[in-house]
């Protein structure tokens, strides 16, 4: 079972429009209770296309996985129905940064961003 902060490799297909596609790494941002009770996991895909987008969080030399975490491409996946494997664990400080960015995306403008 995956845990919050797991970096996994998974196929994002099928996809539609500008959704992230293909077999790629992603970081699990949902906690274990959510994963177990909902039977879904919330992930953010990782790309090696670095374009200094403000919602991208870079990985550093503490991970074997390279690239940036795309916080704007949050996706819920049923990992029981998809083939994936756990690669490594994201450092806690980067995980906190990702969760902070995703939370701000959702809460901004509703008084919850303070």
List keywords for this structure.
single chain; 114 residues; alpha+beta; SH3 type barrels; 2 helices; 7 strands; 20% helix; globular
SSE inventory with pairings:
Blueprint: E1 6-11, E2 23-28, H1 32-38, E3 41-47, E4 56-58, E5 68-70, E6 75-77, E7 84-89, H2 92-107
Antiparallel strand pairs: 1-2, 1-7, 2-3, 3-5, 3-6, 4-5
Family: Belongs to the PemK/MazF family.
Keywords: Toxin-antitoxin system
Protein name: mRNA interferase MazF
Describe the structure.
It is a single chain. The chain is of the alpha+beta class. The protein has a single domain, classed as SH3 type barrels, CATH 2.30.30. 20% of the residues lie in helices and 30% in strands. Strands 1, 2, 3, 4, 5, 6 and 7 form a 7-stranded antiparallel β-sheet that branches. The longest helix is centred in the last third of the chain and has 16 residues. It is globular, with a radius of gyration of 14 Å.
Concise description?
With 114 residues, this protein is α+β, with helices and mostly antiparallel strands. The chain is 20% helix and 30% strand. The chain has helices at residues 32-38, 92-107; strands spanning 6-11, 23-28, 41-47, 56-58, 68-70, 75-77, 84-89.
Shape: globular
* CATH architecture field: Roll
Q: Structural class, from secondary structure content? A: alpha+beta
Assess the beta-strand content as a share of residues.
25-35%
Taken together, the total number of domains comes to 1
Structural Rg: 14 Å
Number of strands: 7
In whole angstroms, the N-to-C terminal distance is 34 Å
Task: Sketch the topology as an H/E string, one letter per element.
Answer: EEHEEEEEH
Mean pLDDT over all positions: 90
Protein name: mRNA interferase MazF
GO molecular function: DNA binding; RNA endonuclease activity
Keywords: Toxin-antitoxin system
Organism: Allofournierella massiliensis
